[in-house]
Amino acid sequence: MTEVLGVSVGASAVRMARPDARPQDPGRLDFHHDTVDAYWDRAEELAAESIGVVLSQPGDGGPVQATGVAYRDQQQFGEIQQAMASQRLYNYRLVPEARAALQYLEASGELGHFGTIALYDLGSSGLTISVIDRGTGQVLLAERTIDISGDDFDRLISDNQLAKQGVDIADNQELSEFTARCRVAKEQLSTSGAVCLPGDGGVILISREAFESLVTVPIEYSARLVRDVIGRSPKHVDALFLIGGGARIPLVESILSAWIGLPVVTPANPESVAARGAALLATPVADAPRQPTPQPGVRQSPSGPASLTGAPDWLSPEPVADKPADSKRKVRGAVLVAGGLVAVAALGLSLGYGGSSTEPTSAPAETSTPATADPTTPRTSAPTTTAPPTTTVPPTTEAAQAPARTYSEPEYVPPVAPAPAPAPPPLIPGLPQIQLPPPPVIELPRF
Q1: Fewest Cβ atoms nearer than 10 Å: which of 51, 280, 326, 333?
Q2: 165 pLDDT band (50/70/90 cuts)?
Q3: Which domains does the chain have, with CATH numbers?
Q4: 6: which strand partners?
Q5: Cα 298 → chain centroid
Q6: Which ranges are annotated Low complexity under compositional bias (predicted)?
Q7: What is the reported pTM?
Q8: Taken in order 115, 120, 123, 126, is the CA torsion positive or negative?
Q9: Sign of the dihedral defined by the CA atoms of residues 397, 398, 403, 405, in that order
């Protein structure tokens, strides 16, 4: 048979399942299971790294030809895509967790005669309740809540044990390690009546009865949610299936059976149901492309959608420029300096040869060559009466070859003599003769 791999990505663990190529019972589906703890790492990135390791190692039936990865929601869909692309993995299929679970329950024969089923998926990060039509595989209704989760159960055990010991752990790292040991104790309580785990933060000693007294209220709250979802279902629900790591807690099945009034089924190894279903849905991706080599001068769109079988556009490296990056900046700087000199010369002409306020100017007009802002688009300067027009030469990659700017020196104009003093006013007979001083002559500075 074709060697395939199924993966489910949880908040605290990555679970992988591979169908047994040589099952002991021909009429039964057997799988090899592997679990990678993701309590300290990002689950999506850890899943991509783990898949890469498995693909590099041939199994009993040869190398893996197809991979199926179950995702929880659209946000995790995109996060898995990015993590897989970072590992250069493209030959995989992404399938919804509900569809993967339905596929396994159908193949294993556990669905029986039920038509429409409800899934109770209790994991470390939250609870998802889904109603699925078996005939079409369509999810009719789905709700998710984080008010009840496996992490909440871990914290309840941690608070209980710290209160009994009278210990207050202030360091976050020590508290996280203590809570991680409480998670191990919770998992062992699924099959044991009591657990004793020694450690640096203190001994964890708890019985199943004590644990169930801590989690009864949250589980009953989840039962109310299940009743509400089933009551709003467009089709009658025939049975409730418990999957996820939380389904191993015996109290969950007993409370839901009493509250729902429907057959409640807990498959074997409920935490890996989605991974096994993803393996059954895995099919090889024909001609899965690798990351395309970018063409020089062509930039991939940073906002383009990522493909299931191709590398996302944002992974394309920056294109290499054909010219040195500083060449254009040097040429542009040379042109701006030349333009500044022309502007200073024009200012000198206007101030030094404008004449006084009482007499019109007599200096000849001078037209300077305009400075271009962009050296890549040369323009021809306007003709003047004192100098022939000059043409700007396109620059090369060196700043020393910037176009030369030419302009004519202004002609010398002798200073204008001051105007003569005005004649004294006429004398009027019969009035006292008062001689006014002549008005001052104001002489503007010369440049």
Answers
A1: 326
A2: confident
A3: 1-110+270-295+309-345 (3.30.420.40), 114-266 (3.30.420.40)
A4: 17, 68
A5: 23
A6: 354-411
A7: 0.63
A8: positive
A9: positive
